[in-house]
Write a structure and sequence with these properties.
Helix content is 34%, strand content 19%. By secondary structure, it is an alpha+beta fold.
């Protein structure tokens, strides 16, 4: 008699269930009662179950092995199953953006953050047009709240200025080549960036900055609206055990406890504990010469940073400026409320520490020489430079100056960002130089694309493949952005110099001639292509007239806020204008009251 496949499976499954209630010494006789047709039934793929039978002929004992199916259905509002459970290591911009994006999709998300409570620390962070598009696609409310705290820079003149020839008056001039035959023509501006033009090409909001504490407050608040206890402070992730396909991951926490999740997202910064385990690194282990640390390479540059409130003649007309000169460059940016943030980049050996640091974390080291005036030190390194640089430095409270050695990583073409049910994003796996302001932007892109990739997964046994798919989606674009960010520093420091001019002797080296000939190539080819590529990822599509509306509304508020700040400084003095954007961490105010229990 022939048995249908469904009958065979039913008989086999029923027998297997019955064995669980039969003493072991009685099971052989029960199994031998099965027909040989039943014995040949191996599996039922449609039900994703496996029942293996090994039968012996005549009087030999038969053994049945029935490993349980560990995969589980993952639900969505219109799909049966439980929510995907995600653990996120690190509560920075990347981690919080990932948390919000995933919570919006119905995932069960928990963030494990090392700080006991979120304090208001950290300087402004740049969001280019591509990141703003992603933020709007993640959540309309998030985007609206970010815009309320935003300072646009890409709506105004941004570009490279001659650090030696800028006349010191902060005047607005063109960047044409007419100074070659006209000795009276100003040569202040070397080249301008087409930020506004490239944003208009795709119909996107313009590049700008937001204070990191404001951004964190917004992200935390929006996450807590969905899951009030989504974040666990004071208990960082320091390792994991990926338990195999469909079995999830055990997250090891700093206090010795563990947590279970389907997926662990490592978003714990450049000195990532998650990446350390994934790639076999030792956290913050540094080579003897200081050029390598935990798999990251010293870029060759250290950067000093400071902040001041200062009304220059071009304050309302410029967004950010890069002053170039021999072996260094100096950057200034409007960051709102009358403030100018500046960065001074130098090609110094690693460990050339003079200023305090605490960049990107809540910890702040001491100044090497407490009596040293760091502003005067930095001025001494810019001897002969434009008075525009000196004016900004003279207005800076010395106690606001910070310093950081810059490290980045080579693209991971030969190693995935994922290990089983664990994946790294943002600075944890692709830190980059700050020149293009794309570090945070790429972390937000990671958050969005990872969430989109996981949203379509219907069972836990597909998660490992999904994480590898995410890596494949991101590796090419991120690697290009890493390369462009590093190239910007290398060109400015190693290949650029004061441009050649027929009217003076300030630029006479071979680098000066090379810099001069680079001008039209940069202006009309490289920079338009670069920014067009950066903005080419914009999941919202063209936003029509919205960018112009946002700019108009912001412009009025920006003028009002800046003038108030300028008046305050005129009355009270520069020293109280604004605390160091790292010393803000020492203030009592916190973003949230959650503390380690």
């Amino acid at each position: 008699m022939k048995l249908s496949l469904s009958c065979i499976v039913a008989i086999s499954t029923a027998a297997t269930s019955a064995l669980a209630f039969v003493p072991s010494n009685s099971r052989t006789s029960i199994v031998q009662a099965h027909t040989s047709a039943t014995a040949r039934c191996i599996s039922c793929n449609n039900q994703k179950q496996s029942t293996h039978l090994r039968m012996a002929e005549d009087d030999e004992e038969t053994v049945i092995s029935t490993p349980a199916d560990v995969s589980e259905l993952l639900g969505r509002p219109a799909r049966p199953g439980r929510p995907l459970k995600v653990a996120i290591a690190g509560g920075g911009v990347g981690g919080l953006s990932t948390a919000l994006c995933m919570l919006k999709k119905g995932f069960d998300v928990t963030v494990y953050e090392k700080t006991a409570a979120f304090a208001r620390f950290g300087g402004p962070i740049q969001f280019a047009s591509n990141a703003l598009s992603v933020l709007k696609e993640i959540d309309e409310t998030l985007f609206t709240r970010v815009m309320e705290k935003f300072t646009f820079t890409g709506t105004r003149a941004c570009g490279i200025k001659d650090g030696l020839r800028a006349d010191g008056s902060f005047r607005m001039t063109n960047d044409s080549l007419d100074y070659l035959w006209n000795p009276e023509a100003p040569a202040d501006w070397f080249v301008k960036f087409p930020l506004k033009g490239c944003a208009d090409l795709f119909g996107l909001p313009y590049t700008g900055v937001i204070d990191r504490p404001d951004l964190q407050e917004i992200l935390i608040d929006e996450c807590k609206k969905i899951k009030p206890d989504f974040i666990k402070n004071g208990n960082a992730c320091n390792g994991y055990v990926s338990k195999g396909k469909g079995k999830g991951v055990t997250v090891n926490l700093e206090d010795g406890s563990t947590a279970e999740a389907d997926v662990l997202v490592g978003s714990d910064g450049i000195w990532s504990a998650v990446r350390a385990q994934m790639y076999g690194e030792e956290i913050k282990k540094t080579s003897a010469d200081g050029t390598r640390r935990q798999g990251c390479t010293y870029s060759g540059y250290t950067v000093f940073a400071g902040e001041t409130v200062l009304k220059t003649d071009d304050y309302y007309e410029t967004g950010y400026k890069v002053y170039i000169g021999p072996k260094r460059y100096f950057v200034t940016s409007d960051v709102g409320d009358g403030r100018i943030q500046w960065y001074a980049f130098f090609a110094f050996p690693p460990g050339s520490k003079r200023a305090p640091s605490g960049w990107g974390s809540s910890e702040r080291s001491d100044q090497a020489d407490p009596e040293e005036n760091l502003v005067e030190y930095i001025k001494s390194l810019h001897e002969g430079w434009s008075d525009e640089v000196m004016t900004v430095l003279d207005a800076t409270p010395p106690e606001s100056v910070e310093q950081r050695d810059l490290f980045d990583r080579a693209p991971e073409f030969l190693r995935s960002w994922a290990d089983g049910n664990v994946v790294c994003i943002g600075d944890a796996v692709h830190p980059m130089m700050p020149n293009l302001g794309q570090g945070g932007c790429q972390a937000i892109e990671d958050a969005f694309i990872l969430s989109e990739t996981l949203e379509g997964i219907k069972s836990t046994d597909k998660l490992e493949d999904a994480l590898q798919e995410f890596y494949r989606k991101r590796i090419v674009r991120v690697s290009i952005v890493q390369f462009l960010s590093r190239l910007a520093s290398d060109l400015i420091i190693n290949a650029f110099d004061t441009p050649w001019s027929p009217h003076d002797d300030l630029g006479k080296s071979w680098k000066s001639y090379l810099t001069f000939f680079w001008k039209p190539v940069l202006q009309y080819a490289i920079f338009p292509a670069q920014f067009a590529y950066l903005y080419s990822y914009h999941p919202t599509g063209n936003m029509g007239g919205l960018p112009a509306e946002l700019e108009k509304k912001w412009k009025e508020q920006h003028l009002e806020d800046a003038e108030k700040a300028f008046e305050r400084v005129a009355e009270d003095g520069q020293s109280v204008a604004a605390p160091s954007f790292f010393k803000i961490a020492e203030q009592a105010a916190t973003v949230m009251s959650a503390k380690k229990n």
